[in-house]
Amino acid sequence: MEPFLQIAPHSLAIVLSRVVVEDAPGVTESEEPPHHHTGYEIFADFKSLNMKYFWNKMVADAIAETFFLGWIDEHVLLIQGKEDHLEVLREAWMRRSLKAPQGFDIKYLG
Predict the structure, then answer these.
(1) 36 Cβ partners below 8 Å, 6+ apart?
(2) What angle do CA 56, 63, 32 make, to 5 degrees?
């Protein structure tokens, strides 16, 4: 029996957590993440933020070649791409240089 379940070939699950804003006088925040209505919009924000890595062409190229696969349980973003591009994203996350979509933090990649 295999210890891992492969959801889709050449896919990566990005597990997110919502950013909790500390209570501050005069600041009101809704429970919903800022201007995200669908999983695809969260993916588009993630892609947009990370394509700005003009100083790291490998990350920018890897992000450009990924595609939205799905959004699970309001915290897991599934993306698909070539295995070498996904590996670049894993390495960028380990170096803490991969940016999360606005209103989220990246807990881990799977």
Answers:
(1) 42, 45, 101, 102, 103
(2) 115
